[in-house]
Amino acid sequence: MNKEDLIELKVLGITRSEVQAGAYALLLENADSTPDEARRIPIVVGAAEAQSIAVHLEQVMPSRPLTHDLFVSLFHVYGIQLQYVTIYSFKDGVFAAMLHLTDGKTQVEIDSRTSDAIAIALRTSAPIYTTPEVMQLTSYEWRRDGEYKPQKPVRLEDLPVEKLERRMQQYVDKEEYEKAARVKKIIAQKTNTAQGGE
Q1: What average pLDDT does the structure give for the chain?
Q2: Are 50 and 56 in contact (CB under 8 A)?
Q3: Going by fewer Cβ within 10 Å, which terminus of the chain is more open, N or C?
Q4: Dihedral of the CA atoms 167, 140, 136, 155 (nearest 10)?
Q5: Of all helices (H) and strands (E), which one includes residue 108?
Q6: Please, which contacts does 175-184 make with residues 24 or more away whose CB atoms are closer than 8 Å?
Q7: Residue 26 has what pLDDT?
Q8: What is the CATH number for 133?
Q9: What are the residues facing 144 on neighbouring strands?
Q10: How far apart, in whole angstroms, are the C-alpha atoms of residue 116 and residue 113?
């Protein structure tokens, strides 16, 4: 996906997770949000990652470098620049991110945990992006007047066959055969239509 197709995000802060005990929620929102409304993405992170992000957001200087500080120091020593971070996937409740790096000559992409990618991006002032699909699947609409509108759920009929096949396999693995049968029917309809059937 081209960078122009991505949605830029900004980090709002860290809160305690209401879903998972002992975890924290990292809150992101679209960079072009207004003071009155935004689309927000909550990401559950561990205590260590939450601490590392909070330390930077609150401009606290630790007595010794944290792991993410060490990464940034290595980048500086070897002339590496983090151009931007992409949160490119949300699967089985887990976000996945990519570091886009360059040394001025070569560009590389390195897969990363999302919390690590964001902690490093904050320390290097690198922009953070996500895909429209991830935004649609994971965000909710926040409004200052208190109205919250969850993103419209994606209909199974609107998913491509490849994703439907993965979804069907997940249902089979969980022994949810009625749901798997429904997905199989949708796949058959899509395949038949693509082949020119009625």
Answers
A1: 85
A2: no
A3: C
A4: 50
A5: strand 107-112
A6: 182/156, 183/156
A7: 93
A8: 3.10.690.10
A9: none
A10: 5
What the block records as the tokens of 10 is 């900004």
State the pLDDT at residue 147. Answer: 55
d(CA 101, CA 80): 7
Q: Give 176's strand partners.
A: none
- Measured CA distances, 167 to 131, 161, 162, 176, 183 (Å): 20, 10, 9, 11, 8
Cβ atoms of 152 and 24 within 8 Å: the answer is no
Count of domains observed in the chain = 2
pTM greater than 0.90 (yes/no): no
- The whole-angstrom separation of Cα 120 and Cα 118 is 5
In the block, residue with structure tokens 């439907």: 164
Q: How far apart are CA 156 and CA 163, in angstroms?
A: 9
- At residue 166, the 3 state secondary structure works out as helix
- Return the axis-axis angle of helices 177-194 and 161-173, rounded to nearest 10°: 160
Of the listed ranges 35-44, 68-77, 110-119, 160-169, the one predicted with least confidence: 160-169
pLDDT range class, residue 157, cuts 50, 70, 90: confident
Please report the pLDDT score of residue 146 as a whole number: 63
Cα 192 to Cα 152, 183, 185: the distances in Å are 28, 14, 10
Q: How far apart are CA 24 and CA 37, in angstroms?
A: 23
Range of the domain at 127: 3-150
- Check whether residue 106 and residue 165 sit in a common domain: no
